[in-house]
Each structure stands twice: as structure tokens, then as C-alpha cells.
Description:
Helix content is 43%, strand content 16%. The mean pLDDT is 96. The protein has a seven-stranded parallel β-sheet with strand order 1-2-3-4-7-8-9. The protein has a two-stranded antiparallel sheet with strand order 5-6. It is globular, with a radius of gyration of 18 Å. By secondary structure, the protein is an alpha/beta fold.
Amino acid sequence: MTLPADYHAHSNYSDGRPLPSMVAAAADAGLEAIGITDHCNVSSRELPQRAKRKLGFNLDQTYGRRREALRSLREQAPESNPITIYDAVELDYDPRDESEIERFLEDAAFDYTIGSVHVVDDTNIFDREYFAAKSESELQDLVAEYYDKVVALIESELFDVVGHVDAIERTPELRGYTTQAHYERVAEALEFSPTVPEINAGRVLEEYGHFHPAPAFLEAIQGRDVQFVPGTDSHRPAELLDRLPVLEERFADLDLEPVTPFSE
């Protein structure tokens, strides 16, 4: 299967490589469209603000500048190799921030939005050292907190796409605590929400070695009336070029027809 678009890619407006190089890689890969979905957090709480300053994730302030850059890239695209570039976002979700998220998204008017859960217990889910110090019962509770947030994200209907629904499995210390009950809760929420999940290739070629959702999770979701968008979750041109073929193969193996994250 040839995928027409990659709806999850990052640029130097968050933690990726320069915007022109990411768009060029998508064009070189033969894609008809690329969605630039830089990380963003709009919480006014102190801990997210501190993390944002540390990482330099300032898309809430720079999306207008990026929008101008995207417009320029569209104008420069050669007629022989045109590509549609979507102005999108991957926004951190926490139920405590819903009102701020809603206001920001209404003002920003992106082409589409990905919502992702990256934090439990006020700690990034990829912080291995923090979770290594936790007991088994604490880890179970933290994984439950993660899926509570994922379900709340879906039920909020603030986003077009829920990003990497089982990203918590990437962290070895948290891996294996996701249960069938977690799968079913998320799958049920997706079935009754306009928010759609993605098949995310962000760690399939790395240590984790799986797509999101992982096979057992995907099976629970596929048993319901739910569709998927494709995303490489690339931060570098080489990642996009390497991940796209395996993502296409995944959609073909599953006999899935990819959907767009917005109404056409």
C-alpha cells in the first residue's frame, strides 16, 4: 500500500530538524501531503511552564511565525513535485488544562490537532530514572493514571487525533502494566468519539520495536467501528524516509484504509 500522507512529523519549531528539510524528505518519499505537528503545551501550571522553558517548546508563541514559513514553502514547491503541507500541532493534554487548551485551539485554528499524554505524576512518561524507583503497586497506579488521562482526552473531543495511545509502553520500567481492561476502556471511548487514533511508527525501528497501538491493543480497537490515521512521528528526515515504508506495510498487512484527521 502507498500512503498518501504522513500526519505526524516534527520540525525545529519543537524538537525536530529544520522545517524545509522535513518537507523535502516528505516530497522525496513520494508523499502527497505532510502534516507538521510540533509539540506544544499551553498549561499555566508551574511544572509544565518550567519544562517548556527547559526544552524550548514555544509553539504557543511561535505558531504564527511557523505558519508564515509553511506558506513560503508551499509557494516554493516545484510544480513537478508538489506537496500539500498541513499546519498542525501535537498538544500536551492534561484534564486540568482543558479550558486553556480549548481557548488556544480556537484562536490558533490549526488544520488539525493531535492530543497526546506525556505526563503522569507530574513526570514525563519517558523518565526512566524516576519510574525505576517506584514499587510495583505504584507503577500499576501510574499506568492506570495514564489511561485515565487518555480516555479523558478522547472524551473531551478537543482533538482530531489521539497520539500514540500506548506510548507508556516505550518505557521499560512501565512496560507490561497495561491490561486488557485498559485496552477496552480506550477502545470504547474511541468508538463513541470523533477523535481517531493513529498507527504511529515512532519507535517501531528502535528498542521498543512495536507500532502504537501494540498488537493486542490494536485488536481491541479494531473490534469496534474505529478508523486510523498514519503517522511516522518523525523528527529527522532520515526517520521519515525509514519509517514510511514499514508504516505502509503495516496498513497493508492489516488491510486498513487510512483516513484523514479532518473533514474533507
